[in-house]
Amino acid sequence: MATDSITAAATPPLLRRVNAAKLLGVLSRAGVMTGTGLIEATGLTRATVHAVCNDLIEMGWVVELDPGHATVGRPSRRFEFNSRAGYVLGVDVGAARSTVLLADLRGVTVAKAGRSLAAVKTPAERTELVDQAIEEALGAAGVTHAQVLAAGIGVAAPVDRAGHILADDEFWRLFDPALGTHLTTLHHWPALLENDANLATLGEHWRGVAQNVDDLAVLLAGERFGSGLMDSGRLLHGSRGGAGEMLYLKLVEGVGTTHGIARTIRAAAATALADPNLESTLRELAGPVSAEQVFAAAGVGDVVALGILRGVARRTARVIATLGILFNPELVVLGGGVAEAAGVLVPEIEAELSGFTTTPPRVAVSSLGDAIVSVGAVRHALNYVEAHALDLELRPGG
Question: Which residue stretches, if any, does this entry annotate as coiled coil (predicted)?
Answer without folding.
Answer: none
